[in-house]
Automatic annotation (TrEMBL):
PROSITE patterns: PROKAR_LIPOPROTEIN. It comes from uncultured Campylobacterales bacterium. Gene3D superfamilies: Glutaredoxin (3.40.30.10). Coiled coil: none annotated. Residues 119-234 form the Thioredoxin-like fold domain. This is Thiol:disulfide interchange protein DsbC.
Length: 243
């Protein structure tokens, strides 16, 4: 399902009628699981919609769903479904204190796929970067000079080269070919990739890693670079991280 159409659908649900009504069913006569019953609702049977996760929020189910954009990239959205499975609302949810309801993501499972990590602290962050993105360069430059964040956090780097940056993938591959995490980080900005070409075997190896990183990014609903997530998969503003 096209992302634009899904967003329009969400806007109609929230701003117009506020919900979609499905035929009522007797809850005590249906033995299907919550996930199965939610998948059976017509609003979630549109082509391209995939139910990723369902969390019990008391009187409601919070649902993470994804849809593929026209460019083939998946993005995640939230929906809320009543326990009688007759009403659904697509959009963000907040508790009584105004805190957004976020379904935690186990980001630890991605640790082993990182290109490298930077810092030695207990807090964990995950950054998706493009070596030719000017904002990514600024983030990395400020990160390098920020001793406090290096000592308080460990930042896992993943590559997401954008198609309009011709050399981004080459820089990313050169970075991954270095020996230590420090050398890999420095390789993003030292320009040595220009005079130290990789072998065809190395390029094939690291191209697979970049594709893996893109897949993870799409699963997380990444929309641009640099994008930073905390250990629960919650988006973090990179300028605020470095303050």
């Amino acid at each position: 399902m096209n992302i634009k159409k899904l967003l329009v659908l969400g806007a109609v649900l929230v701003l117009s009628v506020g919900c979609v009504k499905s035929p009522a069913k007797k809850q005590d006569s249906d033995t299907r699981s919550p996930v199965e019953r939610i998948k059976a609702m017509k609003v979630f049977q549109k082509p391209g919609i995939e139910i990723k996760k369902v969390v019990d929020r008391g009187e409601l189910h919070q649902v993470v769903l994804s849809a593929r954009s026209a460019q083939g990239r998946k993005q995640n959205f939230d929906a809320f479904v009543t326990k009688d499975y007759t009403l659904s609302v697509i959009g963000k949810g907040f508790d009584k204190f105004g805190k957004e309801l976020i379904i935690p993501v186990n980001m630890k499972k991605y640790d082993k796929y990182a290109a490298f990590k930077y810092g030695t602290g207990k807090k964990k962050y995950y950054v998706f970067t493009d070596p030719e993105c000017p904002y990514c360069k600024r983030f990395e430059s400020e990160l390098k000079s920020n001793v406090e964040i290096r000592e308080s956090a460990t930042i896992y780097f993943f590559f997401y080269p954008l198609p309009n940056h011709k050399n981004a993938a080459n820089i990313a591959m050169y970075s991954m070919a270095q020996d230590t995490d420090e050398e890999k980080f420095d390789a993003l900005s030292n320009g040595q990739w220009r005079t130290n070409p990789l072998s065809a075997e190395q390029k094939a190896k690291y191209s697979k890693v970049i594709n893996l990183h893109k897949g993870i990014a799409n699963t997380l609903g990444l929309k641009g670079t640099p994008t930073v997530f905390d250990s629960n998969g919650k988006f973090v503003s990179w300028p605020s991280l470095l303050r």
